[in-house]
What does this fold into?
Amino acid sequence: MEEQLYTTTKVARIFGVTPRTIQMWADSGMIKVTKTLGGHRRITAQEVDRLARELGKGRRDEPANVANDASPTSARADDDLVRVMIVDDDKDLLKLYQMQIESWQTPKTEVFLAHDGYDALLQIGSKKPDIIITDLRMPRMDGAHMINVIQQNPDMDHCQIVVVTGLNKDEIHQDYDLPENVIVEEKPIPFARIQRLVNEHVSTHT
It folds into this structure.
């Protein structure tokens, strides 16, 4: 029996993300895509099931909320909410970020945590963060690779990326190729600077 194949649009609906996100996952090697003789992209049911397990949820043939597959503008109902994603392989550090940012009285923030670049890319399509704060050295996919994949996605043009690292400028320049619009900060974590960036985002989008 021939295995069932899904279109990228269908898979986007299954996971509640945009087709552009599926393309981003495919370009970064996170999901395997085959092509028909006519050049159309298709994804096997087995690959969909594998990614569903990776995401920690069972496969569903229809999205729970089709609105999640809408454009980034329509998906953002609360314009006053700033979505911040933290990407770091240190679990204690993630919790520190989360507690600190969620303790701010203003602006209103929602924090998402990712353990490496791979984990972040799986979440970004549905979370659509406004600000991403990331380390560079992480397993599976480092911060620089993740950043380059994100910046190829026009749906993420609104997102400000901040690298917080213990590396010095020479080490960063030698080992990583970062886009010019990425803000680089040295550890210890500059929480005051991050809060200013969040406030700046609010002031420029209201």
User: Anything to note?
Assistant: The longest strand covers residues 82-87. The chain has a mean pLDDT of 83.
